[in-house]
Amino acid sequence: MRNVSKYTLKTFAKDGSLLLYNTRTGAFVALPGERAGECDKLLSSINIASDASLADDLRKQGFLTEAGVDEMAQVRKRYLDFTSSEKELRLTLLPSENCNFRCPYCFIYDRRGISMKKEVYKAALAMIAGRISGAQSLAVNWFGGEPTLEKAGILAFMGEVRGLLCGRSGIKFSSGIYTNGYLLSAPAFLEYLDSGITFFQVTLDGNRETHDKVRSLRVGGGTFDIIWKNLCSIRQAAGADERFAFKIRVNFMKDQDAQIQELLEEYEKVFGSDPRFSIYFRAVSNMDTSRDDIRPIKGGIYGIEDGLSKQVDYYLNAANKLGKLDTRSRI
């Protein structure tokens, strides 16, 4: 006896293909029209007669589970194993809760406008020093607010981390920064890269028209042109350097197909042939905060299921246009 995984999402593409995605395993499957109906019936009523190999493939990918399997327990165990592991040390640091943008959907609950104190940097370094001998990997990720407002603190910390790792060739080290991209000029990018930060993510909200409506400066004014100029300059300044990966996250709301398509076309011209760059899509979420800034745009926010469905549509459209699937992004 088998059950359909509670983490299985399904939708039909315009050509009749059935698209399946499992949020627990990350498996993604597209079944052509002739097999889509059979698979849909199987997932709707697992007791019907069906191709045994199809059912077995769905089980291997996590779309079906054996009777009695507690998927929540599996997720909980993976989480606990990850958080309690002495071999994997992962830190997410917020050097600044302040931000130079005022996005209405920002999920930072209470903008306190503070920067991380020197003693917090020191405490984080002390923790790394105390646990590094038993670790196999160390990851340091920079988040915010807007982390690039505290570039000096980040670069100084990264220098200290490199000192701790000196002579420890057996430890895998990685570091990433999640930024709005406004202050990420090409020279700043190269400084971060040389410090050991090799993953970068910048967010856009479609083309200039839709982006500047929601991702404006705190003091007023659009930001798209500066960010796009930075991205183009970074690619040029990086030359043939292959040390980094760069993701462009695209936030979207309802009725933005044309604007997303315009951005994708521009992305293809500049970054489409560069394997260091990739693009992915996320629906804007309705996050309650003390400010309730999101109220004016609530009508344009997708519900969860519709947002996920549109996200898959954009993902497949990008894959078709760029001629490749971005296997590094969980959709």
- What's the story with the biggest beta sheet? 6 strands, parallel
Q: Can you count the helices? A: 10
Q: Cα-atom Rg, whole angstroms?
A: 22 Å
Shape: globular
Tell me the strand order in the biggest sheet: 6-7-8-9-10-11
- Strand tally: 11
Portion of residues within helices: 25-40%
SSE string: EEEEHHEHEHEHEHEHHEHEH
By secondary-structure content and strand pairing, the structural class works out as alpha/beta
Oligomer: single chain
Mean pLDDT metric: 92
Separation, N- and C-terminal Cα atoms? 29 Å
Unreliable sequence segments: none
Quote the beta fraction.
15-25%
Description:
There is one protein chain. This protein has 331 residues and is an alpha/beta fold. It is built from ten helices and eleven strands. The protein has helices at 33-44, 52-61, 71-84, 118-131, 151-165, 186-195, 208-214, 224-238, 257-271, 304-322; strands at residues 2-4, 8-12, 18-22, 28-31, 64-66, 88-96, 137-144, 172-179, 199-204, 245-252, 277-283. The strands form three sheets. Strands 6-7-8-9-10-11 form a six-stranded parallel sheet. The protein has a three-stranded antiparallel sheet with strand order 2-3-4. The longest helix is centred in the last third of the chain and has 19 residues, at 304-322. The chain is globular and about 65 Å long. The two termini are 29 Å apart.
Characterize this entry briefly:
The protein has 331 residues and is α/β, with parallel strands linked by helices. The protein has helices at 33-44, 52-61, 71-84, 118-131, 151-165, 186-195, 208-214, 224-238, 257-271, 304-322, and strands spanning 2-4, 8-12, 18-22, 28-31, 64-66, 88-96, 137-144, 172-179, 199-204, 245-252, 277-283.
